[in-house]
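Hi,

Apologies if this is the wrong queue. I'm a grad student, and the batch job for Succinate-semialdehyde dehydrogenase from Streptomyces oceani produced an output file that my downstream script rejects. I'm not sure whether the problem is my script or the file. Here is the sequence I used:
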Amino acid sequence: MPIATVNPATEETLKTFDPLDAEQLEHRLAAADAAFRQYRDTSYDHRTDRLRAAAGLLDQERDEVAHTMTLEMGKPLRAAQAEVAKCVKCLRWYAEHGPDLLADEFPAADDVTDSGAVRARVRYLPLGPVLAVMPWNFPLWQVIRFAAPALLAGNVGLLKHASNVPQTALYVEDLFRRADFADGCFQTLLIGSGSVENVLRDPRVRAATLTGSEPAGRAVASVAGDTIKKTVLELGGSDPYLVLPSADLERAARVAVTARVQNNGQSCIAAKRFLVHTDVYEEFAERFVRGMRELTVGDPMDADTDVGPLVSEGGRQDLADLVEDARTRGASVLCGGGRPANRPTGWFYEPTVLTDLTPEMRIHQEEAFGPVASLYRVADLTEALRLANDTPFGLSSNVWTQDEEEQERCAHELEAGAVYFNGMTASHPGLPFGGVKRSGYGRELAGHGPREFCNVKTLWYGAED
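Support response: The file is valid. Your script probably expects a header line. Output copied below for reference.
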């Protein structure tokens, strides 16, 4: 895959980039290693000052950065602007809260005296250069949510971004440079996916994080396992959205539309499977389908656009294949189901709702990465939970109920990294983020993010006499 900016709304190649050659790549790996040897000894005050500086620069440049993201991957411009604002918030959050998250911990003396210690402490120390393999769908947020906690902890970053968002990738490197992080603290590697293994096997690279597809996650985890290196993986999701009788149906249906089509439907944490109690199914379905039909599909630079194009022709075809498989096996298409007639150019797909779904349909198990919703009628909460967990994924989930017993049961039984009650899943710097099952392992954000790439070092002190 060439390293290039291709506008998915027009299919026009705007800019291409040459990948790093072997000598250039070696120079960057050496620079990361040298930078870490100095940066790991800097104070938290130094690091948080740099994070604040990066936040200030990004805030000033939000319109320019948002425009670049929309050109490269097609999200509506206002969504890109919101993504930039979220990244500013994340940088500032870690600048404010970070030192407390990584402060030394002191076990109570009474708890460790039988070890022979008179005192003990736990210290969090950085591992070294971390390779980040990042996707195109949130080209700035995915990077910042790794970079802010990693840099706070004293690690340095090597970014292998998706090949279709090279301008955003280079911007992030430049952002941290202009925020006065030392040379080599954060670098973008313009390399193809075939070069990732050699970078990860390099002994100077101490760990890796990947957000992306299952095959990419398996490949990185395999190499990391072979070389005994820590990894964090955030992979696919097929998040359930449960609607039970006590739900506020007007709000649940309105939020459901946003939850399904956010980022043009190309989000791991987008709600994809809507499991609705039979007592409220008809009313919810009517509201939900109407909301999906009313969305405006069009130029992502237009302020009136709700849904822009998918990122590539291949992505659109994969989505169309899932819909066609379901249709031929008996699914009903309540709205959408194809390419918009008024968009002959660009990789657009209509907001779509499918129902009458059965387990043999591919979409019952596979992730639909685009604005296609699967709508199920369920008899009760037990059936809803069974269907919700009948997936290889376990990233997040959404539950709409005012019943506290139902909430507690969902909190306990849903197989997911998060449950959002009466609201839509959204990552936040103060909350841990990650999944279970084939959605990956490890956690980003909150206090867990910086600690994932730390040496949790035990310090034991015996009597001096």
